[in-house]
Design a protein that fits this description.
190 residues, mainly alpha, 78% helix, 0% strand, 2 domains, Arc Repressor Mutant, subunit A
Length: 190
């Protein structure tokens, strides 16, 4: 379990894995809540630094809530602060952004949406790194994701229509498995 391994500060590989998992999510979360890409990166960095300090100080108590809730809370404060600073710099008070951030259920929903989106992106990366041939993935993308007609996909990918349907089913099944595995890993660590 990733979270248990974080207790040892010398576990740099585990901390790197934690960073690789959470930094993109924190950045995407911050963008969805109104920061530009640069500000979102800064907010993600600040959140991770605050998390590391608090975690190493023993401030996270799993019995009081999920890890994601704790990280969302830290990120919320970092993002709200940056939105205020950006608002002041632009001559606005920034209050409208803070009102949007006041609903914990909305924050959790945005977090979960971004987490699921990143899981799907990672699943596609894993699929491409695996044994699935690129033409099969391309046929899946065109047909299942982009909605291109099977006949057109068959022509473009050099397949029969039946092979397009087979490609769609095989890739969808493999993606479901990868997504389930990635989702389970996230749940295990929360």
């Amino acid at each position: 379990m990733l979270l248990d391994s974080l207790k040892d500060p010398a576990q740099t590989a585990v901390w790197s894995e934690f960073d690789a998992r959470f930094r993109p999510l924190l950045t995407a979360f911050a963008v969805r809540l109104g920061l530009d890409a640069v500000e979102a990166e800064d907010a993600a960095q600040e959140t991770l630094v605050e998390f590391v300090g608090a975690y190493r100080a023993g401030k996270y108590d799993r019995s009081k809530g999920r890890l994601s809730s704790w990280i969302i809370s830290i990120a919320h404060h970092r993002i709200a602060h940056r939105l205020q600073v950006v608002g002041r710099a632009a001559g606005r008070r920034g209050e409208s952004a803070l009102v949007d951030l006041s609903d914990p259920a909305r924050l959790t929903a945005v977090w979960q949406d971004e987490q699921q989106r990143l899981i799907i992106i990672r699943a596609m990366e894993i699929l491409r790194e695996g044994k699935t041939a690129e033409p099969t993935i391309r046929a899946f993308d065109l047909f299942a994701v982009r909605g291109v007609a099977a006949e057109e996909v068959a022509r473009e990918c050099g397949m029969t229509v039946a092979e397009v349907y087979t490609a769609k089913n095989r890739v969808a099944e493999r993606l479901r498995t990868i997504i389930d595995e990635l989702t389970a890993a996230w749940r295990e660590d929360e």
